[in-house]
Amino acid sequence: MHLFIPGPTNVPDAVRCAMNVPMQDHRAPDFPELTLPLFADLKTVFANGTGRVVMYPSSGTGAWEAAITNTLNLGDRVLMSSFGLFSHLWATMAKRLGLDVICVEREWGEGVPLEDYARHLGEDKTIKGVFVCHNETATGVTSDIAAVRAVMDAAGSDALLYVDAVSSLASIPFEQEAWGVDLAVSGSQKGLMMPAGMSLLGVSAKALEAHKSSTMQRCYFSFEDMLTSNDLGYFPYTPSTPMLHGLRAALDLLFDEGLPQVFARHHRLAEGVRRGVDALGLSLCALDPKWHSDTVSAIRTPEGVDAGEVCRIGYSRYRTSFGGGLSKVAGKVFRIGHLGHLNEVMCLAALASAEMSLADAGAKIELGAGVAAAQDYYRSATATLEAEAGAT
Ligand SMILES: *Cc1c(COP(=O)(O)O)cnc(C)c1O
Questions:
Q1: Helix 241-257 vs helix 32-46: angle between axes, to the nearest 10 degrees?
Q2: How far apart are CA 145 and CA 142, in angstroms?
Q3: Which atom of ligand 1 is nearest the CA belonging to 189?
Q4: In sequence order, what are the residues at sequence separation of 6 or more whose Cβ sits closer than 8 angstroms to the Cβ of residue 41?
Q5: What is the distance between the alpha carbons of residues 327 and 133, in angstroms, rounded to a whole number?
Q6: pLDDT greater than 80 at residue 392
């Protein structure tokens, strides 16, 4: 099977093998030798200098909840936006948890509405939290987090900034400290190349301070129990030790390649896919190139071609999993996830399989056109890379 969904992503052999370990004593005196370097290295991945990173045994959704309940009070007013399934779901959760949510609705395919954020923050000084989905996985849209921080600063807002970085962390640049992100939510099964089951939360020094006076109900996910144990290299409850070994291996792979190189690779792979999509005469769900995501491309099928059928054919005839269109864009888009453990040739395979599936579903496309455009781009981009490496 060929897995091109935007999470879970392909797990490298090194990570899979690292998780195949006998169970061990998580209260042993030498256990911190495994865990303390993980906490330190995760801070590098989040670019979080003065805060903390905590890990929970949950999928990313659990860290969405932990970010809210650890830092806010019931009834607090927060500013959010909805322009895809994930941004929509986080806003829904905030309402269900009892926050007073201002949610700016946008067309699916757009990114964070900066002008609306500026207006709300200028008019309403009671806003306690500003939320953004960095990479909206349903539509393949990346938003500019530094610009959100700039809007908050210009309005003199002292709200906390909450960012969903589940499908961006460790794949495209993320700068928690420099962007003034207070709560950065992520998960194990996307850029970190692990199975689902671990969520990660980057917490700023300011968020740790806010935690002390926050009164929302929380228990299992509470920062204080977690951080007190983590300080010593332990957890307040039983951690999944195989996952911690997997994380070690995944971080080693990321650091061996180099984070800037990892980001450059994701950009290169995504650009090839986009050129392929363009050459097929198709368009992306993202409505402006400034929002193009380097981790997932949501591709609109031509009028009359059911995107669900493209996915079904890909899976049953060509053993390829594409992401389906979610909710509002069901039947209209299919998605190629190009994040994690992936290279140029794998992306060419994804395009080749997408072309066959599209043609079988009735799309009038020229077989090979997308692959050829991507090949051209990959050839020149990798030649440039080689020349640069030779020059240094
Ligand atoms: C995958 C994802 C999540 C988290 O989903 P889980 O299934 O709970 O891990 C949240 N936000 C975005 C943008 C995602 O891509």
A1: 50
A2: 9
A3: 9
A4: 251, 255
A5: 17
A6: no
Confidence tier at 150 by pLDDT (50, 70, 90) = very high
Token pair 């964070």 is at which residue?
A: 112
Q: Is the CB of 137 under 6 A from ligand 1?
A: yes
Segment 6-47, tens digit of pLDDT: 999 999 999 999 999 999 999 999 999 999 999 999 999 999
What's the CATH number of domain 259-391, 2.60.40.1180, 1.10.260.40, 3.40.50.620, 3.90.1150.10?
3.90.1150.10
Q: What is the C-alpha separation between 58 and 62, in angstroms, rounded? A: 5
Beta bridge partners of 132: 163
pLDDT, averaged across the chain: 98
Ligand 1 lined by 239 (C-beta under 6 Å): no
Q: How far is the CA of 86 from the centre of ligand 1 (A)?
A: 7
DSSP tag of 12: P
Instruction: Establish whether residue 5 lines the binding site of ligand 1, counting it when its CB lies within 6 angstroms of any ligand atom.
Output: no
pLDDT in tens, 78-93: 999 999 999 999 999 9
Same fold, 13-256 and 259-391: no
pLDDT band at residue 391 under the 50/70/90 scheme: confident
Boundaries of every domain in the chain = 13-256, 259-391
Tell which one of 81, 86, 92 to mutate to probe ligand 1, the residue whose CB is within 8 A of the most ligand atoms: 86
Query: What is the tens place of the pLDDT at every residue in 36-49?
Result: 999 999 999 999 99
Structure tokens at 113: 């509405």
Q: Is 295 in the pocket of ligand 1 (CB under 6 A)?
A: no
Per residue in 326-373, pLDDT (tens digit) is: 999 999 999 999 999 999 999 999 999 999 999 999 999 999 999 999
Instruction: Indicate the fold that domain 13-256 takes in CATH.
Output: Aspartate Aminotransferase; domain 2 (3.40.640)
> Which one of 9, 61, 92, 339 would you pick to mutate in the ligand 1 pocket, going by the greatest count of ligand atoms within 8 A of its CB?
61
Q: Which of 166, 185, 338 to mutate to test the pocket of ligand 1 (most atoms within 8 A of CB)?
A: 166
The structure tokens listed for 286 are 């993202």
Q: Are strands 141-142 and 160-164 parallel, antiparallel or unpaired?
A: unpaired
The reported pLDDT for the residue numbered 83 is 98
What's the whole-model pTM score? 0.98
